[in-house]
Specification:
Strand content: 15-25%
Helix content: 55-70%
Number of helices: 11
Order of helices and strands: HHHHHHEEEEEEHEEHHHH
Oligomer: single chain
Strand order of the largest sheet: 1-2-3-4-5-6
Number of strands: 8
Shape: elongated
Largest sheet: 6 strands, antiparallel
Radius of gyration: 30 Å
Length: 365
């Protein structure tokens, strides 16, 4: 019977956790996905790139939300059990409150390892795949961004200005500055973008080219030239960020001096940020111990006890402060080795203090 009631408790906690996590993740992902439209409207990427990039950012969102959602779901489940007098069933079957707490801690331990796996492997990999996909994607909507009276410089070393667009989609008075190889200034009285089998060219008519190559300036006229638009590259940052580098390479960077590693160059000035990433991936998940133990303290008092409402408010506030502490601690680990050890030992001390208080309180219940 004891196994059955604990099985039901686990089911309720996991059900609430997954429900809250799903709802909040979709809300946050939807809000963030709106910002990803910049890749379409500002950088000229297609909808395929937008959806793929947005989906690959979902693991990062889930990973960030897990501590908060776990706290809310565990807090809500225990309060709900108390309000329905279902916690009394545990005490009637001879289950001590310390055993109850230990059972709850098992869920926290499982979630800690899940967070470490997701943060160490899944999130960096998905972020890197998204960056690589962005790097090798074509600017499908580039031609739709060309507007009269507007300087267009979303691509590297290429600026386009068009004075007028006609009803037949042709343009008048076109200026181009191309710095991709040698500096070229191109002016054309008329022009038309031709898109055939994803091969884009800008057909320019009746103009002049100023070519500055080998420190020599050449000027020549043309009746028609075809300016290739198929090989243009985005201005979007395509170099992997620290948060997208796998944990193994980050640890290697900390253990060596300046070294070229996979996907990035290890420099001394980026090591503080690497400290933050390693702390976030490997140490921060252990704050879930504190959250689990704090929520377990809800069983100290019953709903019929004096000051019960103040007590649950205190537990909720404490849990919320622990979440804030876990976020703030990441910012300070980059300062020094002392700061790193402090941010590791401090939650352990708090954990021990809460555990001692819990054991003392349940003796008098």
């Amino acid at each position: 019977m004891k196994k059955l009631i604990f099985k039901q408790l686990y089911f309720e906690i996991i059900k609430n956790f997954l429900t809250f996590l799903f709802v909040l993740s979709i809300i946050v992902w939807t809000l963030q996905s709106v910002n990803y439209f910049d890749f379409v409207t500002n950088d000229g990427h297609g909808l395929k790139v937008y959806f793929y990039y947005a989906i690959l950012n979902l693991p990062k969102i889930v990973h960030r939300l897990v501590p908060f959602v776990f706290f809310i779901s565990l807090f809500y489940t225990i309060i709900s059990y108390e309000q329905k007098n279902e916690l009394s069933v545990f005490w009637l079957y001879g289950i001590s409150k310390s055993i109850f707490m230990n059972k709850i801690m098992k869920i926290g331990i499982f979630l800690i390892f899940a967070q470490i796996i997701i943060g160490t492997f899944v999130v960096p990999k998905s972020q890197l795949i998204a960056r690589e996909f962005l790097k090798h994607s074509s600017l499908e909507f580039f031609t739709t961004l060309i507007k009269p009276g507007k300087f267009l410089n979303i691509t590297k070393n290429l600026t386009i200005f068009i004075e007028k667009e006609n009803e037949d989609k042709s343009f008048e008075n076109i200026f181009l500055e191309d710095k991709r190889q040698n500096l070229k200034l191109i002016y054309a009285k008329k022009g038309l973008i031709v898109d055939t089998n994803n091969f884009k060219i800008f057909k320019l008519l009746d103009g002049n080219v100023v070519d500055n190559s080998n420190f020599k300036i050449k000027v020549f006229k043309f009746d028609q030239i075809n300016f290739d638009l198929s090989d243009i590259k985005t201005n979007t940052i395509i170099t992997p960020k620290i948060q997208e580098i796998d944990t193994y390479n980050l640890i290697l960077c900390l253990s060596r001096d300046k070294t070229n590693l996979d996907n990035f160059i290890c420099k001394e000035n980026i090591k503080p940020e690497i400290n933050q990433q390693i702390f976030k991936r490997l140490i921060k998940p252990f704050y879930l111990f504190l959250i689990t133990l704090t929520c377990s303290c809800l069983i100290i008092k019953s709903k019929n006890s004096n000051g019960y409402n103040k007590f649950i408010s205190l537990i909720f506030t404490s849990g919320f402060l622990i979440l804030i502490l876990s976020e703030v601690s990441v910012k300070y680990v980059s300062f020094s080795t002392t700061a790193i050890f402090f941010n590791i030992l401090f939650p352990i001390i708090i954990l021990y203090a809460i555990y001692i208080i819990f054991l003392k309180k349940i003796k008098y219940v």
